[in-house]
Design goal:
alpha/beta, two-stranded antiparallel sheet, binds zinc ion
């Protein structure tokens, strides 16, 4: 009786479909999320920058990330970060102990949202892998939104001034973490700053990318 009562009290609704659940996502949405997982998360690891991606940015995964970022569901980062970490460990791409650096948000945006979703994802990632979490490794000194009206060349130039080195342990290779990877411009800008400071960068690991699963269509 007490168990049933406790379950009833603890039940919340699934942020994606509103069904009652005691987990972060209901079983059905978890299954849908699983369908967005890439068969080969390391398929982009040979490109520059090296990219590791858990899933395809569509359907349930896209909606989960939107809930995380825009609808005050920071708890979803734990699920996404742990999924990413387990895939990363399965792929065995980095044997060194790594410094995990999330792509920072501009301070103003972080204050508005109350958290940086990439940092929450990277924290969950480190809980699983045991790597060193360095959430202050990079600082964003310029908001990227201001760059939308610029030409591609101007934008690339301005992106070089978006990040600054923060506090970081310099003797470990860095794995960057972000929620989404699209053009790679942000990742390249972050990597450039780390390289300028003689810090080795292994690559970037993200929850989702809209670049389709190449091997599944070939
Ligand atoms: Zn659901």
């Amino acid at each position: 009786m007490l168990d049933r009562l406790l379950n009833f009290v603890l039940q919340k609704s699934c942020p994606l479909c509103d069904r009652a659940t005691s987990e972060l996502l209901c079983r059905n949405c978890q299954r849908c999320l699983e369908r967005d997982r890439l068969t080969h998360p390391a398929q982009f690891w040979q490109q520059q920058p090296r990219l590791f991606a858990w899933g395809n940015y569509s359907d349930a995964l896209k909606r989960t990330i939107a809930k995380l970022k825009y609808d005050q569901h920071p708890e979803l980062a734990a699920l996404l970060g742990e999924n990413l970490a387990r895939s990363w460990l399965d792929a065995s791409l980095g044997r060194d102990k790594l410094a995990i650096v999330p792509i920072p948000l501009h301070l103003e945006k972080q204050q508005q949202r109350g958290y940086n979703q990439a940092e929450l994802v990277s924290r969950a990632f480190c809980r699983v892998t045991g790597d060193l979490h360095q959430p202050m490794g990079l600082q964003r000194i310029r908001a990227t939104e201001a760059l939308f009206n610029l030409s591609p060349r101007e934008r690339e130039r301005m992106l070089n001034q978006v990040f600054e080195l923060g506090k970081i342990q310099p003797d470990r290779p860095v794995l960057l973490i972000d929620d989404i990877y699209t053009t790679g411009a942000t990742a390249r800008a972050a990597i450039q700053v780390l390289h300028r400071n003689r810090i080795r960068v292994l690559g970037i690991a993200v929850v989702a990318t809209p670049i389709s699963d190449l091997r599944s269509v070939l």
